[in-house]
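Hey L., structure's done. Input below.
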Amino acid sequence: MKIYQETLRITAKPRGFHLITNEVVKALPGIESISMGICQVFIQHTSASLTINENADPTVRTDFETFFNKTVKEDDPDYLHDYEGSDDMPAHLKSALLGCSLTIPISNGRLNLGTWQGIYLCEHRNYGGARHLVVTAWGS
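Output:
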């Protein structure tokens, strides 16, 4: 059994959905020695999230942002938690909907993503800052 773990710092991104598959792969060169295993990606924040989706057409990422902004509106007077601005509570809700962790199979030393799949960092804040991910891979 081989186990690798790295904390990855993603530079600040504008609000939206960003492909980070290459950054995750570069963070764990040791997965090349795993023929069969699992990779877990965990984001250490409550106002950003992770998901896997379309990696080819950037309009999909734009449409994700449009959908989530329509679904979880800002400036709702019923929200009590607004310490950091009108995007504060909506960011937490969006993060809760998408989640903070991904599990991806490793096959023959590579993430076994589908042809059109990529890992998204979902930045829900206008000024979220750098984000930290813990990337763990294990297998044989």
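The longest helix spans residues 58-71. The chain is about 25% helix and 40% strand.

-- N.
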